[in-house]
Amino acid sequence: MIGTGRLGPGERIPPEGELCEELGVSRGSLREAVRMLAALGVIEPRHGSGTYVSQLRPQDVIGSLSLTLELLPLSGLLEVYEIRRVLEAHVAAQAAARSTPETVDTLFSLIEDMEATTDPAKASELDHRFHAEIARVGGNPTLATLLAVFRARSRKYQVFTLPEGPELRRKSDDDHRVLATAIADHDPVAAAGAAQAHVAQTERWLRAFMPPVEEVGGAD
């Protein structure tokens, strides 16, 4: 009903009994479906009022992927990186075309904070904010949300805490400066190349330094 547009954003779903009769299912099956759709952000149960179709904003529905992506083992995450390379390159190119002096200031400020901190957790958060800012400027909220979901899973693997971490961080910081400079120069081609190379480098580090998830105590 929702997929065909019979029930649109913000509309109230028919009463349980009516739906069970029309769909030919039990109340238990219907309630399970309602719980699943609510978890996915498709519908919104409202206490004392009924159940309504959400606004169905693409970024909200895409964000629900985090429920399952968080369960991927390292091998699955590495497959996702092929998608991420393409998408990060695209948003970087878009950001380079649309960047403002304020955008550039924000990116370089985040880089300086990353270079200054010795706390791996803080560096990871700053790294996320750096890439999120680029995606935001890219102008597609749905794409920005999808990339944020990908990055959230990647952050569970902390290569910077390894013995090789300091050298890896220096390389990552250098990559960030190359990417930010391309965006500051309004050079979409250079920005796309820098973003793709940066993500590919992270993928190589994960392959080289991180054991399978079952070997690190189920570090989800």
From TrEMBL:
<keyword id="KW-0804">Transcription</keyword>
<dbReference type="InterPro" id="IPR036390">
    <property type="entry name" value="WH_DNA-bd_sf"/>
</dbReference>
<dbReference type="Pfam" id="PF00392">
    <property type="entry name" value="GntR"/>
</dbReference>
<dbReference type="InterPro" id="IPR000524">
    <property type="entry name" value="Tscrpt_reg_HTH_GntR"/>
</dbReference>
<dbReference type="Pfam" id="PF07729">
    <property type="entry name" value="FCD"/>
</dbReference>
<keyword id="KW-0238">DNA-binding</keyword>
<dbReference type="InterPro" id="IPR008920">
    <property type="entry name" value="TF_FadR/GntR_C"/>
</dbReference>
<keyword id="KW-0805">Transcription regulation</keyword>
<feature type="domain" description="HTH gntR-type">
    <location>
        <begin position="1"/>
        <end position="56"/>
    </location>
</feature>
<protein>
    <submittedName>
        <fullName>FadR/GntR family transcriptional regulator</fullName>
    </submittedName>
</protein>
<dbReference type="InterPro" id="IPR036388">
    <property type="entry name" value="WH-like_DNA-bd_sf"/>
</dbReference>
<dbReference type="InterPro" id="IPR011711">
    <property type="entry name" value="GntR_C"/>
</dbReference>
